[in-house]
Amino acid sequence: MVTLKGGYTGKILRVNLTRKETRVEELDPNLAAAFIGGAGLGIKLLYDALPAGVDPLSPENVLIFAPGPMTGTDAPCASRMAVVARSPLTGGLAVALSAGHFPAELKFAGFDAVIIEGKAEKPVYLYIKDGEVQFRSAERLWGMMTTDTQLFIKEEVGDHNTRVACIGPAGEKLCRIACIINERRAAGRKGVGAVMGSKNLKAIAVRGSGKVKVDDPQSFSSVLRDMHKLMRDDPALYPGLSKVGTSAAVDVTSAMGIWSAKNWMDTGVFSPVDKLGSQALDQFTIRRNPCYRCPVGCSQVRLARSGRYAGVLSEGPEFETIYSLGTNVGVDDPFAVIAGDRLCDEYGLDSISAGVTIGMALELCERGILSREEVDGLELRFGNAQAVLDLIVKMANRDGFGDVLADGSRLAAQRIGRGAERYAMHIKGLELPAYDIRGAKAHGLNYITSYTGADHNRGYAFQEIFGVPVPEPVDRLAVEGKGKLCKWNQDFSAACFDSPPFCNFLNSVLGPEGPRIVAGLLNAASGLSLSPEDIWKAGERIMNLARVFLAREGFSRADDTLPPRLMEEPIKSGGSAGQLISREDLDKMLDEYYEARGWDKETGLPTKEKLVELGLEYTAEAVEKARTALRK
Amino acid sequence: MVTLKGGYTGKILRVNLTRKETRVEELDPNLAAAFIGGAGLGIKLLYDALPAGVDPLSPENVLIFAPGPMTGTDAPCASRMAVVARSPLTGGLAVALSAGHFPAELKFAGFDAVIIEGKAEKPVYLYIKDGEVQFRSAERLWGMMTTDTQLFIKEEVGDHNTRVACIGPAGEKLCRIACIINERRAAGRKGVGAVMGSKNLKAIAVRGSGKVKVDDPQSFSSVLRDMHKLMRDDPALYPGLSKVGTSAAVDVTSAMGIWSAKNWMDTGVFSPVDKLGSQALDQFTIRRNPCYRCPVGCSQVRLARSGRYAGVLSEGPEFETIYSLGTNVGVDDPFAVIAGDRLCDEYGLDSISAGVTIGMALELCERGILSREEVDGLELRFGNAQAVLDLIVKMANRDGFGDVLADGSRLAAQRIGRGAERYAMHIKGLELPAYDIRGAKAHGLNYITSYTGADHNRGYAFQEIFGVPVPEPVDRLAVEGKGKLCKWNQDFSAACFDSPPFCNFLNSVLGPEGPRIVAGLLNAASGLSLSPEDIWKAGERIMNLARVFLAREGFSRADDTLPPRLMEEPIKSGGSAGQLISREDLDKMLDEYYEARGWDKETGLPTKEKLVELGLEYTAEAVEKARTALRK
Hints:
17 strands
């Protein structure tokens, strides 16, 4: 029998908002061994909690906050948590990771996960202080932006070291692209903020005085030394990410011609590295703001220095926001991007989805599909930064045309009709991140097959983006071999980054050493005895259970697809000119991917053999039911 | 020989920014007895520190932060401080009082006053922790708004209970209507924020672990009981101010027809109590936010609930801002006023001066004196709330037409020319507060003669506004008797409110008991033996020294005047219809006032006899010099 001796607190807090009840449950050590923690554990808990077909914005949905066994220990880059629910944006799985200090504080307060059920009658926030939980009225906070909300709660509980995760107006108004903000970080994507809003839960405030012990400190330190050495030796981590943050990747992807622009019409054409690249933005950085126990500190706080937005500060904009509220909407004014980033954070909107949805609206206006009257008289054209900022506020407030856009590009396009769907840049409803995947095929295949929709973080193809030859050299433009590589990346990410959890920015750094290091740290911390192969297996298990969750909701191979633009219009210019992912390419990559996964190619669902192999036999019936339905 | 046994810390911190030197000096007990503290002490320290003719934005100006002997004790409503300098807006005295927690913290850190001299080579902030003072770089904070600035400094010093007073972009850019913000309070008027900016001083952060002892706790408590009884018995304090804040006065002054609107054209015409009155605003109050040791807690935090500004929160808007960014600019949307209030606080602009200057610009546009091209294409008309908000940002950033307005109405009108001066609603350069003084003559005379310009707080005629018959009943519309009443109010205010200091909102509450209570508390705290008459005398002394300061800078009777509109255009409608202050009325009131003061009527300067009587003989030479110059 497995027992957990450290790393884990061994406790899960279950909160029922409808009944205002809380219960502390033991974490089953077998679950820990099989799903690690974080996203893996969250997905397992969600799968067990939900029947199929639950409305994501109903009280029946469940919202899970899961840090992992590494969170709050001395391990670097591990103050992270997965926020897990059924997604109101995609209908599939919402798994959004946030970082900062809140995740560690949740561990110090004693919990490996918090499961939120039901719906409060009136707005509340939870105040978790060590083992104790209070339901507090949030009626007066309802409507408030996220910085003010955090400040007010800290003042109210009388302790400014309390950490707060909260929603802004967008989450309250059930915008399906709303995020959850803790400190100046976001659990950004897939609409987890709307789920929180639907539960009348404004915030979770947490303070813990506990420590996260590890079972064998000496072994733990020894593995940490290996880890730190890999980090120090990496040519990009400290010299790049630590210095200029994620903006470093703007330079890299622009040079490769995969930096998307103007709703994916102008990749390779509009790439103003001189204005939005790492050197340009670094001038405006006033401070780094590392997560708890992070020696890298990629997060850059930047301040608009002049012009209309002078005085506006944001933690960011990160790589993705430089695209979504910058080049994707034709804006190259860094201060406008800072201002847009701050607005999204304050109102609680996912900056990627917001910017991509706005990009679609701009294109529809330029094409004459939307009239100026329909968009409340705003002059919507690429490059009109103030109109973009006005739209962000209107979306968060569901004000006028903002209401049309407030639920992301897929629903907006459906509401607009007139062929607008062609210009909605999403996969499974989740808006596309910055990388133009026509020029990075494994990265594209990951977007296509990810259980969350177009998600760059659940199997990041660092081999293609940074040229790291791990597990072997790849040609980013080739189609062959990408199915296998995509599986490798996804399992690697699920096991080594999303679940312990560790920061995804270490993926190319740890490389093939990842599973060994994760196994070593987990074993030393918790007294488990997992091999690196067990870690790989856990990753595959998590990916399969996620796929089963989607199958149960009706997803299949037919949903593993791309916006037509990417299959029909090649990249116009730059280092990836002429590239696209044709329908034929897509089919080839999918076939190879399903084969690598042991999933049947017809439906894209796991075979029974695979499920049994992974210890997921309890899901086999649901999968067979889904397969049968698809074949009908 | 007088010694100070409590109440006072007995220490003054002198900081020279040019030389990066600090010195702790003893507070002369005779100064304490003669000028009490706060504004009184600040004026005395400034008078001694400055020669005549110092450029207010040069390193030679001095910026003083002075709480008083009551600050930090158990006395209610005393966590206040006077911020004192030569004003860049008026050229006279800047005395701006702020409250909250910072003033008490400064006492806990050990200081009765902080005197800032010189100019830092590069942006700095001061960190005062108990007796210790650090100069810290503020280069990275330069450009930041005030909420972010406070948060960043608290994070940087690692103590969220630190209190911070800071400037925003407006102060850095030397806007002559810039304020200083601590917490969500302002030392608002007369451009003290620009003085701080001119010194390259972004902020003062303070933390103290000390206590303010009182010499005779039993006597102190006994007088406090009297004070609390007066407060409890007041019909307006707890039932009104405590419940709905200063918005209560919107109802009162609207009913009297002295609530100003549309740059003073539409007093009595545009008074939307239904939208901006106390009941209307109370719906949006989410919390009171009392100052340290204040049982009243007038400050209301309000949240915009819907529409374009939904989600924006401000501490306020106070009475004055409801006028300046509301009716004065033709706006009756409470959420727009909340948004304007927040913008002024974040950028660090005085909301009264900003709104009144904008009101002038709106009138100039409506009259065709300013063209749309000259105002950057903005549609400037009364009631266009978004244009008002856009102008606030432009003023703080000195962006385009905002640069024309950034230094207040007097300078803006001079820059515009074409007769614009007629529409600039200021006295001595300071913009008019809300009360239409055409219908409250003693209140008007106070604006006219105040040493700071049109200032409602340095001698508030509560008799006229609230009908309190203290020291005797008055007819607010009468001219006779107002000279004497104005002197009474000013001496009362200087001695009992601006210097101990106590909140001005207690002026009608303490009434004639004020000097007795102040004397009792001062004596019990400090071991002084002042009579109520000594307190009255201190008030008169402070008023006279302030007048001497102005005389030295060339001010005289000729400057004690009004905008021509108030002398020529009667109030159109409402409870004060037909009222104005004619030139004849003005002269009558001034004659009576100077006589009551013992000042000569020709120049409006103190006589030598009066100065000697008040122990200010050392100023006589300067006054005679000024008088001689005026007579030439």
